[in-house]
Structures are given as structure tokens and as C-alpha cells.
Write a structure and sequence with these properties.
Layout (H helix, E strand, L loop, with lengths): L15 E6 L4 H12 L5 E7 L5 H8 L4 E3 L8 H14 L4 E4 L8 H6 L4 E5 L13 H9 L3 E8 L9 E8 L6 H25 L3 E3 L2 E3 L4
Bound molecules: 5-O-phosphono-beta-D-ribofuranosylamine.
Length: 218
Amino acid sequence: MTTAPSHFSGGAGAPAIGVLVSGRGSNLAAILHAITDGALRARVGLVISSRADAPALERAAAHNIPTAVIVPRQYSTRAEAGAAIVAALRQAEVALVVLAGYKPILDAVVVQAFPQRILNVHPSLLPAFAGGMAPRPQAEALASGVKLTGCTVHFVTEEVDAGPIILQAAVPVRDTDTVETLADRILEVEHRLLPQAIGLVLSGALRVDGRRVLGGAP
Ligand code: GRF
């Protein structure tokens, strides 16, 4: 394990976040940029990948962020993989967990270990086009003929893509859009929204009332 350099530490005493990834890690990069720019007071204490070959791991290593690879199918049960994830996150003393392009469905053991402390970014305006990883939600939006789609940052509960919504932003669908162009424009908005949601949760300003998250509206 290595230590994050000071320019990514987010300042002394900044809360640690754990980021779970499976792929390219552009949302991880957006979090790191927000920290470097001073827009987000936090530090990435650990990156956990569900795949050993995820490019996101290289991004983390380039910033000297500790990484762990936990491949769920290498465990006999999903709960065992979940227990390994919980142990790693606890060891890193994270205040918050962020799913940033994390593919596996998180086991209940992880959700229960961090109640209202796990965030996910999803590339649609939930509850529309829930489930599935990019580019499925974007392809479904395009095929459905909606004129607006977007992205959602929400708390993770045991039901997939159904937790209380923290922030959403709309992206218009253009006549000329392909799944790729639409996904690219949604991604730009994700990169703004995810660090903003992390900051809101860490600030303690939010209150969850049933399905509603209060205190985060502009
Ligand atoms: C994003 O579109 C995110 O909404 C979805 O998976 C994609 C991850 O992209 N859950 P990246 O790995 O952060 O670049």
C-alpha cells in the first residue's frame, strides 16, 4: 500500500472516501480533479476494482492511491466477496463509499455496513432506465424516444438503482444522437454531478426522509 501525495490528500483531516470501479475510471478522475481543484474536501483513501485489468486501477496508481482487486467470482459466495470489500473499506477508514462505474451488484453485507454512506452514479434520470451498466441505459433512452435523459447520483440500497436520489441533471436527446454521442454528453454531466453529491453528503447537510433526500436542492 502506498500513500497519496499531498496534492491529492485534500488537506489534513479531509475525510477518506473509498471508490469502487470496474472499468475506465473517468468518474474516479473527476473526483480526483475536484479534490485537486479544491472543489471537494476529501481524499481518496482506497480504490477497489472488481477486475484486475480495469484502466481505473492505473489512474489510481498514477496518483499513488492504494488499490485492491476483489473479484467476486473468486469467492464462493457474493456475501464472502462483500465481507472482503467491507474489511478493506474499514481498514482504509473511509467515511463514504462511491460506486463509480462498478459493475457487480453489491452484496447486502456491504450495503448494511455503510447505511446511507454509499453513493452510485447512474446514466439516466432514475427511475427511468434503471438497471444495467453503460451503455444500456443510454441505448434504452435513445430507443424509447424520450427527449430528455441525464444522470442520477443516489444512495445505494439493497434494491438496484432504487435508493434515495441525491442529485439529478438532465441532458437533451438530439435528433442526430447515437448511443455513443449521447453517452459522452451524459458522462460530462456525471463528472460534475458526482463530486458535487459527494461534497453534499460529506458536509452533513442532507437529510433522508423516506425516499426523499432533503437539503441538497439548489
Ligand atoms: C458511467 O456512465 C456511470 O454512470 C456508469 O458506468 C460508467 C462508468 O464510467 N455506472 P467510468 O468508468 O467512470 O469512466
